[in-house]
Every structure is written in structure tokens, then in C-alpha cells.
Amino acid sequence: MESFTQAETPGHRGASRRPRLRRKGRTASGFPSPEGVPAPPQGVSARDFRLFWWANAADALGTQASGAVLPLLLLALGHSAQTAGLVAGLSLAAGLLLGPLAAIPADRGARKTIMIWSAAVAALAMGSIALALALGHLTLAHLLGAVLVERFATACHEAASRGTVALLCPPGDQPRAVSGLAAADQGALILGPALGGAAYQLSRALPFVADAVSYAVAALCVRAMRTDLKAPAEPSGDGLLREAAAGLRLVRREPLLRLVLVWVAVVNGVAVALYYATVFALGRSGSGALSLGVVLAVSGAAGLAGSLAAPRVAARFGPARVLMAVTWLLVPLTAGIAGAGGPWTHGALLGAVCLLVPLPAVVLQARALLVTEPALQARVGAVLATASGATAALAPVLAGLFADQVDTAAPALGCAALLTLLAVHTTRRAALAEAAA
User: Fold this and answer.
1) Mind giving me the DSSP string for 297-315?
2) Residue 16's pLDDT is what?
3) What span, in angstroms and rounded, lies between the C-alpha atoms of 437 and 426?
4) Which end of the chain has fewer surrounding CB within 10 Å, N or C?
5) Does the predicted TM-score (pTM) go above 0.70?
6) Above pLDDT 90, what percent of the chain?
7) Higher per-residue pLDDT: 406 or 263
8) Which of 327, 316, 313 lies closest to 427 in space, CA to CA?
9) Alpha-carbon distance 384 to 3, whole Å?
10) pLDDT at 433 over 70
11) Which of these, 11, 4, 2, 1, lies nearest to 378 by C-alpha position?
12) Cβ partners under 8 Å of residue 115, min gap 6
């Protein structure tokens, strides 16, 4: 259920009781607390946020363990790099169909139910792959079908989970909460690929067993949450398609959200393309699954450091400077990956990219919280996720095509050119990040 950035939108902690206000000062997380902001979550809300954090952390760990070895499994079964990229692209594209529609019942109050059942369905899908591998009867049709089912379930879970932070935490604590969730995702990148690679060496089925278990843990954690996770919203009476498009209309009206959409879509696609370019390059050079897992673990460690440092870096240098500087620095680093000659070089360059990307990503997520209406939490998040998901779905297909038809360096060179265009656009629009602060 991972994604490059999961935009949380501001919400409401519930209408059943009026929260006490605290005076201007600092929240428990250390962020400034403007006058009129509710106190940091205590009791049930704090407990539920911890459960939500563990649900996301467990899910991310299992997803990284299986996702890191899925291309290697396809290659080991005799399929080409283009086929591996096509399977990954189809799985990501499948989630784009349900995400915006699943956001509607989530905003209407079914957020918790959707999260529980979608995680359970995903666990069954990944478990079926592990069982077929253990029995020696896994076919490409079975693998593709299970991956598509898992992706459909994941899209529903992601759509429902957006806005949960805003329902559990007051605005003053939301930046730290977003940073903590991003750090959990990056932490999973440290352990997940390494564990997945090591487990794959023992048995091809083990990484998928781990993923199935992680989905089950996520479902149980959400089930244990006591907060109903319902945002205050009245039914609009509009048709299904018009309600689904409400988030898109807000994104079109709000310049900051448009900047977030463009930046996240491009960088997410580039990140996925670089990942598959690294997989294909190391695979063709003879590096094993364990070497690939170590490279991705190093990248995850760098991403974790970037996620934890993001709030302080933004506070010291300013959101606009961080956004522009990071986007321009990504260009030479991405171009350097095209000429990387081994696991260590790939690991160093990919790690540098992963260190930098969270710095503006966390800033943009926190800014998006301030400009989104509570009743549109899931739907605005679905628009941002659909844009980033579309590029993420196309990236492995193009990476596999260029790796087969041109060279394994071609995907990274194409990404560097795309990032150059993004850097020019970001330089012109970066002031929006400051204006929303």
C-alpha cells in the first residue's frame, strides 16, 4: 500500500464533543500551536494514532519485502524485463480506477470499514501467491490476477486512509505526524528489501508470506482503533461522478494543490523508474537478490534520514528554497545513475536521491493540509494519488521497454531530462509553498 507521498488533508476530530482550546504556544510535538487549535491528542486519539502508525509500518514492511523481489521472480520464471515492467505497470494502473470512487464512501463515514476489509482481501491475494509458489504451480495468469486484486484492495485502503491523521491530530501536530508516517515508510525501505532478498534466497514464497501477514496485522490494528474516523460532512445529493470530481475541482482552483500534483506526479514516476532501472541493471550484471536488497536498504536508510530531517530543514531554510534546491539537485544525481557501474555506485547515487526527495515532499504534504476542506479529505488525496499513480504505473513499463530495446542507462537519462523541466517549473512556482505557511 505504499506510495511516494500520501497527502493528508485537514479534518475534524469529531462533532460529538467540543474540544478545549489551548493558548498560543507549542504543541506536544514541538510545532507552533496557533490560537484556537485543539490540544494534542490524548487518551484514545493518541492510542489510535499509534495503532494507525503500526498498521502503516507493518504494511509498508511487507510490501517492500515482496515488491523488491517481484521483478526478480518474473525474471527467474523465464520472463523478460519488459514483461516484468508490464506486470508492475498494470498492477499500479489497476488502482487508479477505484481510488477516486472509494474516496466517496470514505468521506461519508465508511473509512474504517474500507480499511479493514481491503487489507484482509490484500492478505488473501498475497497468500495465494505464496501457496502457489510453495506447491510449484504458479502461473503468469495467477500471479497477474493476484497482483491486480491486491492492487485494487490497496487503492481502496489508501483512499480510505487519507485524512486519518487530520481526524486524530490537531493542525499543530499534523506536520510531525506526517513526518512520522513518512519515516515509517522509509524505515520499511531499510528492512523490507533486505529481508525480502534474504527470504527469497531461502524460499521464493517467503517474501509473499511476509506481505500477507503484514496486511493481516494492518487490518487488526485498524480494527482495534476506537475512533470512528468520520469527518463531518453532509450528503450533497450530487451524482456519483460529480461527487468523485469534487476533489479535482478543488485542486484546479487551488494553485498550491496544482503545484503539489505536478511535483509529486513527476518525482514519483522518476523514483519508480529509477528503482526498476536499478533492478534491471544489477540483474543483468549478475548481482543477486541479496545485493539488490542491500542497495535498496541503503536507499531506505537515506530516505529515513531525509524524512526525519524535513521539518527542521524547512524551518531553517524555508519551504521555497528547499523545494527549488532539491529539485535541481536531483537532475545530476539521476543522470549519474545512468553511468553507475556496480551495486555500490548504484546504492550511493540512489541513496542521495532518496535522502533529498523527502525534504520537499513532507513540506508539500503539510502545506496541502492547510488548504483542503475537511469534507474533501479522501477525494483530494485520491486526485493527488491518481496523478502520482499514473506516472508510477507508466514508469516500469517504459523502464523495461528502454532497458530491452536501448540500454539499461536509458531510463535514468530520460528521468534526468524530465526532472530538468520540473526544476524550471518549480522555480517559477516555489513561492506558493511559502504563501501557504
Assistant:
1) HHHHHHHHHHHHHHHHHHH
2) 31
3) 17
4) C
5) no
6) 9
7) 263
8) 327
9) 11
10) no
11) 11
12) 157, 160, 161, 218, 219, 222
Which amino acid would we find at residue 181?
L
Q: Which of 399, 221, 426 is nearest to 328 (CA)?
A: 426
CA end-to-end span of the chain = 29
- In which residue are the cell numbers 504458479 written? 138
104 or 317, greater pLDDT? 317
Count of CB atoms within 10 A of residue 409's CB?
A: 17
Please return the burial class of 328, using the count of CB atoms within 10 Å of its CB with bins 0-12, 13-18 and 19+.
Answer: middle
Q: Which residue, 338, 337, 367, 335, is CA-closest to 351?
A: 337
Residue 83 has a CB neighbour count (10 Å cut-off) of: 18
Q: Residues 257-284, buried b or exposed e (16+ Cβ, 10 A)?
A: bebbbebbbbbbbbbbbbbbbbbbbbbe
Residues 6+ apart with CB under 8 A from 150: 91, 121, 122, 125, 126
Radius of gyration over every alpha carbon of the chain, rounded to an integer in angstroms: 21
Amino acid in the structure at residue 257: L
Contact 62, 191 (CB under 8 A): no
CA distances from 263 to 83, 331, 360, 361 (A): 28, 14, 10, 9
Specify whether the backbone of 318 is left (phi greater than 0), alpha (psi in -120 to 50) or beta: left
Burial 13-46 (b: 16+ CB within 10 A, else e): bbeeeeeeebeeeebebebebeeebbbbbeeebe
**Contact by Cβ (8 Å): 365, 384:** no
CB-based contact 103:159 (threshold 8 Å)? yes
User: Could you give all domains of the chain from N- to C-terminal order, each with its CATH number?
Assistant: 43-232+243-435 (1.20.1250.20)
Torsion angle of the four alpha carbons 383, 8, 56, 109, in this order, in degrees rounded to the nearest 10: -80
3-state secondary structure of 357: coil
CA dist 193 and 69 (Å) reads: 8
- pLDDT of 240 reads 54
What percentage of residues in the chain have a pLDDT greater than 70? 73
C-alpha–C-alpha distance, residues 102 and 79, integer Å: 34
Q: How far apart are CA 236 and CA 10, in angstroms?
A: 20
Letter string b/e over residues 178-210, b meaning 16 or more CB atoms within 10 A of that residue's CB: bbbbbbbbbbbbbbbbbbbbbbbeeebbbbbbb
Q: How far is the C-alpha of 79 from the C-alpha of 83, rounded, in Å?
A: 6
Average pLDDT, the chain: 75
